[in-house]
Amino acid sequence: MQEFLEILLQREGHDVVTCGTAEEAVVALESDDYQLMISDIRMPGMDGLELLQRARELAPETLVIMLTAHGTTESAVEAMRHGAYDYLTKTCPVDEIRMVVGRALEKHELSDENRRLRRQVDAPPSLPMASPRSPQMLDVLELVRQVAPTRTNLLITGESGTGKELIARAAHAMSDRKDRPFVAVNCGAIPENLLESELFGHMKGAFTGATANKLGLFEVADGGTLFLDEIGELDPALQVKLLRAIQQRTFKRVGGTSDVRVDVRIVCATNRNLAEDVRAGRFREDLFYRLNVIEVPIPPLRERREDIPELVGFFLRRFADSLGREVGAVDPATMEILEGYAYPGNVRELENVIERAVTLARSDRITPDCLPAALLAPGGATTAADLPDDGADLETLLADYERRLLGQALRRCGGVKKHAASLLGITFRSLRYRLQKLDMDTPGPDER
Predict the structure, then answer these.
(1) What residue ranges do the domains of the chain occupy?
(2) No. of H helices and E strands in the chain?
(3) In whole angstroms, what is the distance from residue 120 CA to residue 52 CA?
(4) Pair 121, 234: CB distance under 8 Å
(5) Which one, of 198, 37, 36, 53, lies nearest residue 108 by Cα?
(6) Cα angle at 204 between 59 and 94, to 5 degrees?
(7) Which residues does 378 contact at the CB level (< 8 Å), separation at least 6?
(8) Nearest Cα to 225, choosing from 271, 262, 187?
(9) pLDDT of residue 320
(10) pLDDT for 339-378, tens place per residue?
């Protein structure tokens, strides 16, 4: 039976190691990694149940199939109670052996992928979940906290570089799915002819190069969250299949005939105006409404400048640590420049600016000469006269500008409000009033 299984599984393309006794199998498990072990239940010396227990201790990720020649299944059921994946009888058809082994190896592959993704989820995100100060980002985080525990689909919108994936990860981390995979895929970065297989998987022989069955990201994300970035780039033909998968929570692998059922929360992101794409016929209306149950709009960095100091501090600490540089502060003049720049690339651009500055810093603080030319050039900073193309709320614009000037004056004067008031050409009482109005009032050194 052992020789028969060895020949059968080798012909299926598997690497096979055989052991004459359970004791030899223990040595093999100690010396190498295996996806699957097939063991007889009744053997001289150490029996199959004892070997199963040792396998669970030595190689918990190795799946075990038990083999029995007896008419009763009691011992096989007992083995499954102790952690066996499945069992086979020695008289079962060859096709059943192939099916059970294939299913076990597929499960092992899925478990490997889940562990890899779990490590990604536990790793620090590429953008900070800093404590925001701007009302806009406080509103965004409050909305995320409110909808995260539900299974409602989210559509995160905003310019490129604003941190849409960060918000998606935050929604996942605040949900009851946080211990399951968070799987991200960029729909615009994968060729159209490969994206369907990436999302839904494929069967062996489905197309040239499909040498084995492959799990799709929908299956990998089962029980967790699937983040579809740049959803507006999705091919119209694939939009139909995605809609069916979302509506019915089932799909077919490429080349497959049976439905695969999954429980996945969909979170999408786009920097495009999908409503306009719907009107232009570039995006399916029914899919748009399926995805856009809750929209989470992320404002560009130029509209939430209060967050810049927190972001600068976060990136400064991160890059000083990763680059091994003892840079721990930002020169006040440098911070003024950083707060005044428009950041067309948003948070991602600020991240790159700080990495560059930490790399070039000649002392323990970042000075203006460490910044890119774009920030230092005339017009690199914005003023209150800048008007966005789509208009603006004048009161909010003026309040933001006033808040920025007040903050700069206080930093330049070391927090001494009397000096800051003099620098701004207003009375101390007027300064106190403005700080209270903008919720910036904190005791300064002159008020101890």
Answers:
(1) 2-119, 132-299, 301-382, 393-448
(2) 19, 14
(3) 31
(4) no
(5) 36
(6) 70
(7) none
(8) 262
(9) 93
(10) 888 888 899 999 999 999 999 999 999 999 999 888 877 5
| Residue 359, phi-psi category: left (phi > 0), alpha (psi -120 to 50), beta (remainder) | alpha
| DSSP letter assigned to residue 381 | B
233 exposed, middle or buried (CB, 10 Å; 0-12, 13-18, 19+)?
middle
3-state secondary structure of 356: helix
In CATH, 301-382 is 1.10.287.3510: no
Q: How far apart are CA 192 and CA 198, in angstroms?
A: 10
Please check whether the domain covering 393-448 is classified as CATH 1.10.10.60: yes
Topology adopted by domain 132-299: Rossmann fold (3.40.50)
State pLDDT tens for residues 33-85.
Answer: 888 999 998 888 898 889 998 888 888 888 999 888 765 567 777 888 888 88
- Residues 53 and 57: their CA atoms lie apart, in Å, by 6
Of 148, 196, 165, the C-alpha closest to 270 is 165
Kindly report the CA angle at 24 between 19 and 26, in degrees rounded to 5?
115
Q: What Rg value do the Cα atoms of the chain yield, rounded?
A: 30
Instruction: Answer yes or no: CATH 3.40.50.2300 is held by domain 2-119.
Output: yes
